[in-house]
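A reminder from the course coordinator: this example appears on the midterm review sheet, so study it carefully.

Given structure:
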């Protein structure tokens, strides 16, 4: 009786291992490989203001609309850009939004795609005290 239950346990583990080993991830875009790639990243601070870089790495000419909104829906920035392989930098005045979440929407006219990024800021202050024995 014990050997039967042990065999079922081992069989279940082997079946689970094989299932996990041979599964393939499904891509959100069904694996389509397009030339359209955007990336928004924080690159640092300038004059105590956050600076972000938006890479619009598309090999074809396109028109992009970039909108920065706060968490209440207020538009902080709105502009259109035309070109291929664009890189834009944005310096945000932190006194306009404080620690509120920001949403960045990037719309591609030709590609008919919309990508939304969120920017969350937080401040943390760390006070550290160490006691070391000298002798």
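Designed residues:
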């Amino acid at each position: 009786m014990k050997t039967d239950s042990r065999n079922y346990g081992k069989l279940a583990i082997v079946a689970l291992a094989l299932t996990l080993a041979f599964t393939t991830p499904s891509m959100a875009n069904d694996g389509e490989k397009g030339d359209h790639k955007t990336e928004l990243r924080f690159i640092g601070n300038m004059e105590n203001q956050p600076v972000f870089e938006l890479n619009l790495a598309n090999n074809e000419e396109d028109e992009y609309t970039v909108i920065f909104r706060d968490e209440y829906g207020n538009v902080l920035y709105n502009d259109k850009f035309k070109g291929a392989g664009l890189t834009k930098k944005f310096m945000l005045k932190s006194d306009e939004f404080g620690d509120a979440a920001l949403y960045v929407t990037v719309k591609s006219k030709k590609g008919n795609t919309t990508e939304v990024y969120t920017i969350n800021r937080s401040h943390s202050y760390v006070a550290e005290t160490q006691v070391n024995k000298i002798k």
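The two ends are 66 Å apart (CA to CA). Confidence is low (pLDDT under 50) at residues 26-35.
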